[in-house]
Design a protein that fits this description.
With 387 residues, the chain is α/β, with parallel strands linked by helices. The chain has 2 domains: 117 residues, Aspartate Aminotransferase, domain 1 (Alpha-Beta Complex); 237 residues, Type I PLP-dependent aspartate aminotransferase-like (Major domain) (Aspartate Aminotransferase, domain 2). Helices cover 41% and strands 15% of the residues. The chain contains 13 helices and 15 strands. Strand 14 and strand 15 form a beta hairpin. Helix 2 runs antiparallel to helix 10, helix 3 packs across helix 10 and helix 12 packs across helix 13. The radius of gyration is 21 Å and the shape is globular. Bound molecules: pyridoxal-5'-phosphate.
Length: 387
Amino acid sequence: MYDFDTPAPRAGSGAIKWDMRGDFGNENALPFWVADSDYMSPPEVTDAVRDAATRCVFGYTAPTRSYKNAVAGWIRTRHGWEIDTDWIVPSIGIVSELSNIVRCFTLPGDKVLIQTPVYDPFAGVVKTAGRTLVENRLVRGGDDRYAMDFADLERDLRSGVRLMILCSPHNPVGRVWTRDEVCRVAELCAEHGALLVSDEIHWDILMPGQCHFTAGNAGTSDNVIVLTAPSKTFNIAGLKCSNGIIPNAALRRKLAAWKESRHMEGPNNLGAVACEAAYTHCARWCDEQNEYLSGNAKLVCEAFAQRLPEVRIAPLEGTYLMWLDISRTGLDSRTVCEKLTRAGAILNDGRRYGDDRFVRLNIACPRGQLTTGLSSIIACLSEAMGK
Ligand SMILES: Cc1ncc(COP(=O)(O)O)c(C=O)c1O
């Protein structure tokens, strides 16, 4: 069994999640914000990076054949998608690659669609490129589970959207989209001439019984780009390595030419080493992490159900990010986050994702840390509700 109970020594290491706590006004608060984890990365990954460091090869490198085989192997065995290794386009991160893709495949003023509430850099990437942001709101059911509004989506796509960014699994509402939902999105994009860019960075982090369906398998792969990375799964975001999977050779060529003309390179060579090791040796670590995270999610749900049922929680199907409805406090999410920080827990303000009735809680941490944080969070919200 791997150890997820021991905290990684992150404070003072430059970790944004820990070392920027002072910016919120409480440098002793426990951090439940930035989407990375607070236990160690898999030992197989650390060993591979250490071995590479002892060989001292730090010059210019390009992803090797064995790297690409490892990426393709993971995608085949974990996600049931047979890819050609030529389709793999390595990069230094999903957000920067999204920005490249938006700028490469659309023109200033073109419409780009996102489904809100959603990971905030999506809107940033679109707006800073001078494209027109189209927001297709997700709808929340009586069971607090979110769904897509396909009628609205179709209307938006028909209005001339050139590119849609799908977040799958979805940060922050925690949905793992079903095969039917993903296929419907892909069909609609194909029908209306929009490029579908599916950000699947969270695809390995699944709660029990959940099965991720990649947009790559939706049957319309000519207009699909899947973006993924080992960074969330294995906690190696700082190593700057991600992968686009682009079945359409013309799209691949266009993106390669666009990046080359702007002198863009990557990924980091130690990131590639870590990625290859993770995808080759860490399937069991990934399964055990999912089990651990599902225990953490259960802890959160039970604590709120018993002590503060007024806070509704979107059912967590995938990702390690929980979406909590704090509207019964009568306060907006910024005010609630300020109170929570003073009480000892830093969460993300839902406003940045597009809904200020919510806060986002990252549960990828040792259970002891979560238990301590939960007590402060529930006590603080109870007080805010006058309980
Ligand atoms: C949906 C989603 N995409 C992308 C990223 C960031 O990816 P990267 O660090 O590779 O830019 C995150 C990080 O939280 C995310 O949740």
